[in-house]
Write a structure and sequence with these properties.
The protein is of the alpha/beta class and about 200 residues long. The protein has one domain (about 5-200). Helix content is about 30%, strand content about 15%. It has 5 helices and 7 strands, in the order E-H-E-E-E-E-E-H-H-H-E-H. The strands form 3 sheets. It has a 3-stranded parallel β-sheet, with helices on one face. Helix 1 (about 15-25) links the parallel strand 1 and strand 2 (about 25-30). Helix 2 packs antiparallel against helix 3 and helix 3 packs antiparallel against helix 4.
Length: about 200
């Protein structure tokens, strides 16, 4: 898909998100929209021994006041970083490539970024590097509603939204013999390592 692709910011988004970036000519990350709760903007899904677990980054947001994504700050009064890292260790320490990638990702998680957008940007950059996708997404400078449908994926890659994307199957640690899709890119990276790009 040549031309600008526009995506929401996301916290360890699913493989579909990276499949779109891989195929795009250039990539925009929306920073001017009003923040939306209960989305991949601050959460991801990993596969554990007890099934799918959702990890959420707590954010500071006052009441019902609308706030732009770029202004959303992370809430460090909760020990979410330790919870997320422990969950990743529990879910993926037995996966083939966990030991190769957890340290740089953990370093980013423990940096205490003020803004959610900055945290997500750093994690996205590292994941693209691991996947060997040589793309450098940039932020939007203003909010525009009218992007062409084949370029605008800001609101279509979300929990509960069914898209036409189908994950390619690979070996997972805790799937009970049946592949589980629509998970965070962490699942693919930790299980398939350098081969991950082939599965996007």
């Amino acid at each position: 898909m040549p031309g600008d692709l526009i995506l929401s910011t996301a916290y360890f988004p699913p493989a579909e998100y990276f499949n779109l970036i891989k195929s795009a000519g250039s990539v925009l990350i929306e920073q001017e929209e009003n923040y939306i709760k209960q989305t991949y903007r601050n959460r991801c899904r990993i596969l554990t021994s007890n099934g799918i677990l959702t990890l959420s980054v707590p954010v500071m947001k006052g009441g019902k006041i609308k706030a732009r994504v770029k202004d959303i700050t992370v809430d460090y009064s909760k020990r979410w970083q330790q919870v997320h890292i422990r969950a990743m260790v529990s879910a993926y320490s037995r996966s083939p490539y966990f030991q190769f990638y957890i340290e740089p990702l953990e370093k980013i998680l423990l940096t205490n970024h003020k803004y959610l957008l900055d945290l997500n940007d750093q994690l996205l950059k590292k994941c693209l590097e691991i996947l060997n996708i040589n793309k450098f997404p940039i932020h939007t400078s203003s909010y525009e509603a009218g992007y062409a449908a084949d370029r605008d994926f800001r609101y279509s890659i979300e929990p509960g939204v069914v898209s036409g994307y189908s994950d390619k199957t690979y070996i997972q640690v805790f799937n009970g013999g049946e592949f589980v899709g629509r998970l965070s890119i962490l699942d693919l990276i930790f299980n398939m390592g350098p081969e991950s790009l082939r599965y996007l």
